[in-house]
Amino acid sequence: MKNQKGTTLIEVLIAMLIVATGVLGHAKMQIRSMNVAQQANFSQIANTALLDLSQRMRANSGVVTSFTMNNLASGNSISSSKDCASESCTNSEFATYEVSEWFAHLKINLPSPRFSVGKSGDLYTLTLIWDAAKTGAGSGVCNTSTANSHQCVSMEVWV
Question: pTM for the full model?
Answer without folding.
Answer: 0.78
